[in-house]
Amino acid sequence: MRILRLDLTRYGCFTDRRLDIPAGPADFHIVFGPNEAGKSTALSAIEDLLFGIDPKSRFGFLHDYKNMLVGAALENGAETIDIRRRKGNKDTLLTPGGVPVRGGE
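The structure assignment produced for this chain is given below.
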């Protein structure tokens, strides 16, 4: 599986930010930037997208916990899926249209 795009919709200090991760010959990417640019936040967003946003997340300081949202386009071979993850206790993995993905949690 590879990440084609990371959507930091409402996460940490980010609002409606998109990070495209294009495929390349080596397919190896380095994210760099100055201190406090959001590199660690983006890494935490990937973890929260895949495994769920922690109930006591430290990334709910700009957006209310109930509004936190991160998404991505993921590729597995020839298949590409677009998913979102909201903060909550149930049905947190969503399609782009906001419909819960059943059995994916």
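Interim note for the steering committee: The two ends are 17 Å apart (CA to CA). Residues 39-51 form the longest helix (13 residues).
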